[in-house]
Prior knowledge:
Blueprint: E1 2-4, E2 7-10, E3 15-17, E4 26-37, E5 43-47, E6 52-53, H1 55-60, E7 67-80, H2 82-91, H3 93-131, H4 139-154, H5 168-176
Antiparallel strand pairs: 1-2, 2-7, 3-7, 4-5, 4-6, 4-7
Helix pairs in contact: 2-3, 3-4
Amino acid sequence: MYEKNDIIVWEPEEVIYRVDDTPDSAYLITDGAIVLYTREGLQLNRIGQNEILGETSLLLGMKRTVTAITGKGGAQAKRIPPQYFNDLLTRDKVIAALIRKVQYRLIDSNIQSNSLAVNLERITELVEMHTDGLNLNDSTVAELKKLLSDVRQKVVFARDIIAYPPAPDEAASDQAKPDATDGSVSDLG
């Protein structure tokens, strides 16, 4: 990342911020794309030109709730200082309340999407374990396998690029291994 005046340029597949980071700014994207992920690595959204990134944390006075990573073409944005949002919220109490309500609904929706995706991923794994030995000529089995394949394509987890708490047994084995991650991002399109 480099910055000139109030314009920031991020390299392709660069981490802008992670879940639980303390916010210092929001950004108006002027070029490129940014992909948003939950703590567990569920891809929530892809945002681009003329969209705002990072406003939720500033508006609500909380730590970052998602991880933001630039797409394969990088991204460019104009920095929006926290004072801009403070002034906006101070000027009009009704608008401030409306903005906060919408932001909390967005956070709740992200949490719900993540929870459903995690459960759906596990259900898919369990069903796949039991359909492998079934008759593929059975139309119901074929339909089930196709639906499972469709689900796997739509629910995208990128756990290899997102820092999320490992399961207790994984944490112990990870401490013994050297860190093999290079911070690169794959399959962000």
